[in-house]
């Protein structure tokens, strides 16, 4: 890995995000298969809703 990549990895490790399961369920439509993007090294990858209702619901969770 080059220095830029290592810097990015280091920054992500320091600022990792934590979400409640209920927040992720809301954002992904209860992990609906229609929102599945693929499989990653750590499991299934889903797209999330980005509308204002989801932002409000998820931020208040």
Oligomeric state, counting identical vs distinct chains: single chain
Name the structural class. alpha+beta
Number of helices: 3
Strand order of the largest sheet: 1-2
Mean pLDDT: 79
Q: Report the major sheet.
A: 2 strands, antiparallel
Instruction: Find the count of extended strands (DSSP E, 2+ residues).
Output: 2
Order of helices and strands: HHEEH
Radius of gyration: 14 Å
Portion in helices = 40-55%
Q: Report the principal-axis shape.
A: extended
Head-to-tail CA distance between termini: 37 Å
Model regions low in confidence, pLDDT < 50 over at least 5 residues: none
Q: Strand percentage, roughly?
A: 5-15%
Can you offer a commentary on this structure?
With 61 residues, this protein is of the alpha+beta class. Helix content is 44%, strand content 15%. The protein has helices at 3-14, 21-27, 52-59; strands at 36-40, 43-46. Strands 1-2 form a two-stranded antiparallel sheet. Strand 1 (36-40) and strand 2 (43-46) form a beta hairpin. Helix 2 runs antiparallel to helix 3 (52-59). The longest helix has 12 residues, at 3-14. The protein starts with a helix and ends with a helix. The model has no long low-confidence stretch (mean pLDDT 79).
């Amino acid at each position: 890995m080059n220095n830029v990549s290592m810097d990015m990895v280091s920054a992500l490790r320091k600022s990792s995000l934590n979400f409640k399961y209920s927040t992720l369920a809301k954002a992904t439509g209860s992990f609906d298969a229609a929102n599945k993007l693929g499989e990653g090294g750590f499991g299934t990858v889903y797209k999330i809703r980005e509308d204002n209702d989801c932002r409000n619901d998820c931020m208040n969770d």
